[in-house]
């Protein structure tokens, strides 16, 4: 649990906004599940930076998945 209802709702708003800011950069075909681990240090800029770092990793994984023979 991440604090009281007010804190949890703020956390959800930050995560949604951070994802909205990075959405255009995400490759198609990827579903994202976000689980905040430490709400005490969270902020909109921190979540946005974290998602921005994940974009290249997600792109590589998607490319590897698409290029691997099945």
Radius of gyration: 14 Å
- Extended strand count: 0
Protein structure class: mainly alpha
Low-confidence stretches: none
User: SSE order, as H and E?
Assistant: HH
Mean pLDDT: 82
**Global geometry:** elongated
Helix content: 55-70%
- The number of distinct helices, counting runs of at least 4 residues, comes to 2
Beta-strand portion reads: under 5%
Main pleated sheet: none
Distance between the termini: 41 Å
Name a few traits of the molecule:
2 helices; 0% strand; mainly alpha; 70 residues
Task: Describe the protein's architecture and organization.
This protein is mostly helical. The protein has two helices and no strands. α1 crosses α2 (44-67). The longest helix has 24 residues, at 44-67. The termini are far apart. The model has no long low-confidence stretch (mean pLDDT 82).
In short:
It is built from 2 helices and no strands. It is mainly α.
Secondary structure: elements and pairs:
Blueprint: H1 5-22, H2 44-67
Helix pairs in contact: 1-2
């Amino acid at each position: 649990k991440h604090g009281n209802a007010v804190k949890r709702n703020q956390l959800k708003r930050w995560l949604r906004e951070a994802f909205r800011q990075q959405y255009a950069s995400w490759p198609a075909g990827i579903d994202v599940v976000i689980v905040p681990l430490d709400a005490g240090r969270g902020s909109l800029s921190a979540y946005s930076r974290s998602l921005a770092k994940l974009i290249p990793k997600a792109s590589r994984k998607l490319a590897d998945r698409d290029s691997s023979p099945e």
